[in-house]
Amino acid sequence: MLQLYAAAKLDPMSKMWVSFIGIILMIIAAVIITYARNKTKGWLRVVLTLVALIMLIYGLICGLLAIV
Predict the structure, then answer these.
(1) What's residue 68's pLDDT?
(2) CA 50 to CA 68: how far, in whole Å?
(3) Which residues of 2-27 are buried (b: 16+ CB within 10 A; e: fewer)?
(4) CA distance readout (Å), 22 to 17, 29, 31, 41, 47
(5) Which pLDDT does position 50 carry in this prediction?
(6) Rounded to the nearest 5 degrees, what angle is found at the Cα of 25, between the Cα atoms of 41 and 8?
(7) Which of 42, 47, 21 is nearest to 32 (CA)?
(8) What are 6-60's pLDDT values in tens digits?
(9) pLDDT of residue 9
(10) What is the C-alpha to C-alpha distance for residues 18 and 24, in angstroms, rounded to an integer?
(11) Residue 11, by phi and psi: left (phi above 0), alpha (psi -120 to 50) or beta?
(12) Rounded Cα–Cα distance for residues 43 and 20 (Å)
């Protein structure tokens, strides 16, 4: 609840930057997961997939904060 209140107090320019960060994180996550699936195998593939998943979740959170 506190995070939503803090996001509501952001000015429009800050919300824009938060949304850009979210978009960039999602793009990087898509590139990493594509690379992991096409070029790697074994434990490196798992590690890259987990990194991409974490970046995707942070990108989603940034996008939600920008909307509120």
Answers:
(1) 81
(2) 27
(3) eeeeebeeeeeeebeebbebbeebbe
(4) 9, 11, 14, 28, 21
(5) 97
(6) 145
(7) 47
(8) 556 888 899 999 999 999 999 999 999 999 999 999 999 999 999 999 999 999 9
(9) 81
(10) 10
(11) beta
(12) 31
User: Which residue reads 């989603």 in tokens?
Assistant: 60
- Side chain identity at 66, as an amino acid letter? A
Return the amino acid letter for 18.
V
Tokens of 26: 């999602």
Show the tokens assigned to 51.
Answer: 């990194």
Full 3-state SS string of the chain:
CHHHHHHHCCCHHHHHHHHHHHHHHHHHHHHHHHHHHHHCCCHHHHHHHHHHHHHHHHHHHHHHHHHC
